[in-house]
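Sequence in, structure out. Go.
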Amino acid sequence: LAFSVLNILPSIRASLAKPSDMPAVVRTGFLCIAAIDAALMILGYMAFGQDVDANVVDAIAKSLPRTGFLTSLGLFLNITCSYPIMSVMLVSNIEAQGTSRLHTPHSLVNIVVLRAGMVISLSALAWLLPYLMAIVGVLSSLFFIVN
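Output:
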């Protein structure tokens, strides 16, 4: 729910046993995200104060290498678990737009071109643009505010 709320709310509402519970689901989701973000900000400031790097994971890795490794591992696992969820929503929307082999779920063309192509292109983009995460962070904040 933290990013691009408008795209995923209809699919979440459709999957609820009682769609009337949607306001409570959204409220709970936002409260959980806000609480986690606030706790991380407070812990980061308590640990590093004014000397914190722009990327707190880098600051942790410099001062506490083992903890930094665990932090990096947690970040990797988060991305590994989150990417399939986000990509399924994107791919499902693309599949619903047509009837060609590209739009047929789990066809060879769909898997190779759409799904693998998305992973390869996003990986290449991140490698070619080293400051992509900063740009994504700013754009995510803007979209969150606008949504």
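Check: The longest helix spans residues 65-95. The chain has a mean pLDDT of 80.
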